[in-house]
Amino acid sequence: MSKKKTADTAEQAPLSRRQKRRRKRYEKNIGPDIRYRGPLSYRSLKILAWVCLALSQVLVLMNLNIKIDPSCESLYGSWPRILSLLFRLALPFFLVGNFALILDKRESYARQLLRYGLLSAAVLVVCLLVYNRYILGVTALFMGGREAARTAIGKAFSFVSGGRGFLSFNIFIDLFLCTLFMFLLNYRPKKILKGKWTIVLRVLSILPVAYETASIVLKILSSLGEITLPLWVFPLLTTKPPMTFFAFIAMALFIKFRERVFIKMGGTHEQYGDFLKTRRNSLHFSVFIAVTFVIAAILDVIGMIFLASAISVLMGIPESDYVDLFTKVQSWGIGDSVILVAAAPVMLLFSYTRTHKNNLIDLALPIVGIVFIVVIYVEGIYQSLTMLAASAANSVIESIMP
């Protein structure tokens, strides 16, 4: 009898001020849904991402043309800078679009992991094939051997990369790692690793973070000339700036934290699944993304200034070299997340609950995007070869003219 009375007393214990706020917020969240729903869906973000990714490839060809003919730099004007920003916008749009599919349970973790794992491997295989079969093979014919060709190609890549010592372009690696992190953090097993063993998955979520960290360290050491990265490593490097990855982690933790609070306030996992499909939570998530993007951009700029200042003090770099120092720090990805400010307003128009009945467009979108990129490269290489041939012809004419 005394035990029952003690239990009743514990149940009737007054809530703290913080618990009252959480209870009030919980009761408001499970109330009638709101009417607002953003006009942009996951498909809209993916279309924007593919357009940004395809158009940004023109930047590679522009840089190649500038190497061939430096006068092109003045001809292109500010377009290289604009295209560089488009490439940085592609990844946030891809990441949030994938988030939408997972939150709305329209696509499983396994399907996304398989897709981006295969695409990452495909980029790696194609790069190795093109390098070993064509670039190295053709160069070896002119250099008299594969070793001499490797040395010449290494110098050429260092020149193209602007002295950074690396090229990072496989955006599918980033998408695979982010999906894997989301899976290990939020997936609830039904057969294996159930119950308390789920902690194993949560601990393993550090692996994608470790991969990202290792990639950043390799980029820094390579740009400083401490190590020389082999060319086969380039397709395995991540492309996103560090602060963009931390913004993604914040989004994943936001979903996990809301689930814990929801369960603690008396809800069930099934009810939380239903809550994720509400327009109210969709709006909350969109606002959180927008705010997170702005904060990440501000912190990234502060971090770039602080790091560059610290390096200048420690190494005694004069103020006249600050521009080169900032360029070096930015090559590590620090300071590149400022583009998230431009993506923040788009997030306020986004709703992950907005869906589409026809899934054929989703299946065709990657194919169309890849074909678009291939066409850009074919046409761009043709233009570069034409420019190179014209430059060579002019040199010959000038040499034979009196």
Describe this structure in words.
Helix content is about 75%, strand content about 0%. By secondary structure, it is mainly alpha-helical.
**How much of the polypeptide forms β-strand, as a percent range?**
under 5%
Low-confidence stretches: 1-12
The gross shape turns out to be elongated
N→C terminal distance: 116 Å
Overall pLDDT confidence = 80
Quick summary:
The protein is built from 16 helices and no strands.
Please give the structural blueprint.
Layout: H1 2-11, H2 17-29, H3 42-68, H4 72-76, H5 79-103, H6 109-143, H7 146-160, H8 171-186, H9 199-204, H10 206-223, H11 242-264, H12 269-276, H13 279-315, H14 322-331, H15 340-348, H16 360-400
Helix pairs in contact: 3-5, 3-16, 5-8, 6-7, 6-8, 8-10, 8-11, 11-13, 13-14, 13-15
Question: Which features would summarize this protein structure in a list?
Answer:
0% strand; 402 residues; mainly alpha
